[in-house]
Every structure is written in structure tokens, then in C-alpha cells.
Amino acid sequence: MDKWKTLKSEYINKSPFGNIRKDSCELPNGIVIDEYYVNEYSDWVNAVVITKENQILLVEQYRYAGEDFFLEVPAGKKEGNETDEEGLIREVREETGYISDTKPIFLGEFMVNPATQNNKIKTFLLLDAYKKHEQDLDDTEEIDVKLYDFDCFGELITTNKIKTQLFTVTAYFMAKNYLVENNHYK
């Protein structure tokens, strides 16, 4: 199997939220797709945050494209020269007011949607979190902080009792698997 060739590339739109690029691509079999659209976004970091009381910390916010409110793990993009861990810790603190004295545990890095997006998400686990600050939200953010029992949260996902999105589901089950494999709980 061979990669596709980019014959031409132009930006349709550029904004602080991301860019839309239109490419002309040639497939290995010679077929040319004249209009293949790519969404360019910054890479993200997210974390499953678990409190000392074994509760998962989630943020609930309105998502315009989904036309509803969704429960999500705290997430965002790095700013300036931040490391992944620094960006993650800042995002969690700003969105929730929670911090942890433990170092974030890296769980994995994944493409978000490689068919049409170029960004990755790095997922972490943050243990023993506790509330120390008030939220420090951007003008465009309105976020409610929610706590759920970590052990029961998977059932809420698998029975569709909550509205969430795929990277929260993936992060939760990765964190649960990590905790089981490392004997944090049974």
C-alpha cells in the first residue's frame, strides 16, 4: 500500500480555532480527488482526573456542533512553550479549580480523526486531585464541574445514561485499565 500524493493545496479559511485546507490528491491507483478537505487543529491534551475520594472529575459544557450539553474529561491545547504536562495541569486548574500533588501519568497519544483532521490528543491520568482554586475560565467558556464515582462511571457510558464524546470514553477506559494493571484497585 502506498501513500496518497498531494498535487495542490490551498487554505479556504484560517482562524485561531483552526484552518480548513483544500487539497488535490492522487491516489496510488491514479484516481485524483480534486477537493479533499482537511481540518487543521492544534494538538490537545486531556486527563482523567480522580480525586482522593475516588471520584472522576468531569466538566459539563454546551457543544455547539452537537447542539447539547456534554460531560467530558478536562481538555485543551497547550499555550506558548508549555510541555504537555504543564498544559494539562493548567487546563485542569482553570476549568475545575482542582490540582494534584502527583505527576500526570501518560496513557497514550492518538489521532483524533485522521481522515479529515491533522491533530492528536495526548491522554493522561491525574490521581489524588483536590479542589484548591476557583475556576478561571475564558470569556467563551461556561463550564460546570461534576463528580461521579469512578468505578460506576463506565456503566453510565455503556448504558448511554450520560451524553459524552469519544475521547472521554476512550480516556476513561484507558485509565481504568491502567489502574487495574498497576494494582491501584480491583
From TrEMBL:
Keywords recorded for this protein, A-Z: Hydrolase
Record-level GO BP terms: nucleoside phosphate metabolic process; ribose phosphate metabolic process
One GO MF term attached to the UniProt entry: hydrolase activity
Cofactor: Mg(2+)
Pfam family, one: NUDIX
Residue ranges of every copy of the Nudix hydrolase domain listed in the record: 40-170
One Gene Ontology cellular component: cytosol
SUPFAM superfamilies per record: Nudix
Top-rank taxon: Bacteria
PANTHER family per record: NUDIX HYDROLASE DOMAIN-CONTAINING PROTEIN (PTHR11839:SF18), UDP/ADP-SUGAR PYROPHOSPHATASE (PTHR11839)
Listed name of the protein: ADP-ribose pyrophosphatase
Organism of derivation: Sutcliffiella cohnii
